[in-house]
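**Fold tokens**
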Amino acid sequence: MVKASPDSKFQVEVMHLGSPLPELMTASGECYVLAEKETSFIIRVTAKNPSIVYGACLTLDGQKVGFPRTFRGRCLFFGFRAGGPESYREFKFVMPELREEGEIGRKMESLRGCIQVDFYETFQKKRTPIFKSKKFQDGRGRFRQQQQQRGGENGGQQREIIDQFEARTRDNCKKESIHAIAISQGKEFTVPRGEPKKRGEERPQKEVVDKVDLNKLIESVKIYYAEFFTLQMRGLINLNNIDHLKITPISLLRRNKFIVKKILKTIITVYDDPMDLTVKKLLANFQKYTLK
């Protein structure tokens, strides 16, 4: 759970399968989340005051994603917009593609990426009434027939919004670590938005709507993401620290014997009475400190 400052009005969480990704704070106050390749995620934003309407804008690796949105209390960024109002593509951590010499692309400036949420004040604007002619309402006009031919819901046309996002790439050289990671687009999915409006049903229209005031920034929350070994190289993860053992990904424990040996050594070192430490107790402590 990340805040811009102790007095922040907002909290930002990077979620996977309903749980926040492991977080690490530096001495300077920067927040990192542990990113694993081929892991999808969503971003959850929570306001301290649930009665006020705020605006939020999402930026991934320096690129704006979607449009500014308003929310009250809590909102979710599910993924990249992929067409219709309910269609998305996953936010996904991936291995950056190699860029050959001379090829144009978004170069990785560092091994860490950035997830940023900017929060704004909002204002209210009177809704502009939509004029509908008699022919449109009765369904006999040419405009109505054209809408039906386009296949929109109840004869209307679906608004398509597609987010353009260019994933970071890395140079094909030995200087860049193989542990680099980036955000890209995953598979497409849909998020239901409640029951559809029935034919002929009129929904009550609000007289005013909330709009984001992009000139009145409240605060920005930045979360950096990096792979396990990158965090270890930066000194943010230390396997000699018993509190850092739970951060170790299960997938890494299954394929890296050195990490497993290091964790076992740490457990033995911090145990109150190493001479009383049986194999059964060692296994129990290994599960205690590594199972999520």
